[in-house]
Amino acid sequence: MPPIKMKNAAKPARRSTEDGEAASKPRPQTRIQREKQDIILDAALGVFSVHGFRGATIDQIADAAGMSKPNLLYYFPRKEEIHKQLITKMLATWLAPLREMDETGDPIPEIRSYIRRKLEMARDFPRESRLFANEMLQGAPRIYDILAGELRELVDDKADVLLRWMDEGKISRADPYHLIFSIWATTQHYADFDVQVRAVLGKDRGGDGRFEDAARFLETLFMTGLSPKKA
Amino acid sequence: MPPIKMKNAAKPARRSTEDGEAASKPRPQTRIQREKQDIILDAALGVFSVHGFRGATIDQIADAAGMSKPNLLYYFPRKEEIHKQLITKMLATWLAPLREMDETGDPIPEIRSYIRRKLEMARDFPRESRLFANEMLQGAPRIYDILAGELRELVDDKADVLLRWMDEGKISRADPYHLIFSIWATTQHYADFDVQVRAVLGKDRGGDGRFEDAARFLETLFMTGLSPKKA
DNA sequence: AACGTTTTTTTCCAACTGGTCAAATTTCTG
DNA sequence: CAGAAATTTGACCAGTTGGAAAAAAACGTT
Questions:
Q1: Mean pLDDT in runs of 10 for chain B (231 residues)?
Q2: What is the ipTM of this complex?
Q3: Same structural domain, A91 and A45
Q4: How far is B95 from chain A (nearest CA, A)?
Q5: CA→C1' distance for B5 and D6 (Å)
Q6: What is the CATH number of the domain that holds A41?
Q7: What is the DSSP string of chain B?
Q8: Are residue A146 and residue A63 in the same domain, yes or no?
């Protein structure tokens, strides 16, 4: 006579779904749980960033994470849960540089270093950039609220700072919102359209140096534009 | 006793698969065929541009085209066929503006009008832009050859033109490849990241005027940059 | 070693996927 | 209008997909 098993003991404390409210006991979360979750998130980032939410399959992710599908589902009971967690984590990282733009600093260096940081992120976290891009292309169904809320407030805030700098004559007058857009666009381009950039630059110029070339170019573009300086 | 039918008469002349070689007779192609194919391509553009190749389903496309799946498959026997045709058509449209940049023209107006045209395309053909973006994010598996071939040659060509203009002192010196990238990035941003642009600009500023604002801003950016002109 | 707990694997399923096939219907041409 | 060709539909299929359930294995504690 086999011993009586309790059906499906305690599932790992998943704080993923924001728990509604007062979760009686948060459940400690073991070391293995954290490790595996990290592995899964990393694998999922690779898959989601390439194929988008719909195009990605749990099998692909499980495969990339080196575990079976049911095993993966033990840690993240739904596909959406993984995606949501990735998006949340990514957004925080993604907006950090803009937050750091300091209104008490020197305008030109501040902008310059914002551009540099964004470009570094495109270089160091291309998958995060593509995950975000994919979400945008689909109409941001899962993060629209954040865009229209938190993000908008942040941009409004920084746009004000930029306007003030313009009023003080520290930088030339231009639409601050579109200025921010143009920084986003030019830098993220090197992550999102990386294949194209490499293909066009070719083997010789498309190597590791391309980010430095880009940095130099963007410096020129944003600082002085294309009009030739008349001697 | 039902009359004997010939099994599956003549399928519509599909020149899609490039027919190997000497296709005996191209088959005229009826009016209905052209119409339906257009409807399908239009519907497919909408679906592929949002979900990417993997994420899009034939059912979705058939639905959007207002016909049954087998009916759609009658015109395009494979999903890939539809996608390939869309990509090909789109690439031609997409590169036209760059082709039109005239080396015998006045440099500054030429660049200015290239930017304007690209921005108009982002406004008028956002789905095409997103289709392209989706393909890029996935690593361009279906068009890499074109990127590294035709596109690269075109860009090399125009980069030479830009360099010449720089040598002549008509525009300031900067990496011509990254200059082209930055024009692509800033203009396509308004198609690919449209949701974000709208969300950040809000109801009032995010309306139809946003493209004019963008045009004005890009004009400033590319012409004079951000450094304040010292009086 | 013996226990409960956590993790993993095996098996399974219903819905969806891209695609086929033959029959039914519509359209075109004389 | 008849007959052939073109178009559309309905039934179907094998493979994939997200996910459930339960048993098996591994782990941690005493």
A1: 33 38 49 89 98 97 97 97 96 95 95 97 98 97 95 97 95 96 98 98 92 97 77 44
A2: 0.88
A3: no
A4: 13
A5: 14
A6: 1.10.10.60
A7: -PPPPPSS-PPP----S--SS--S------HHHHHHHHHHHHHHHHHHHHHHHHH--HHHHHHHHTS-HHHHHHH-SSHHHHHHHHHHHHHHHHHHHHHH--TTS-HHHHHHHHHHHHHHHHHH-HHHHHHHHHHHHTT-TTTHHHIIIIIHHHHHHHHHHHHHHHHTTSS----HHHHHHHHHHHHHHHHHTHHHHHHHHHHHHTSTTHHHHHHHHHHHHHHH-SSPPP-
A8: no
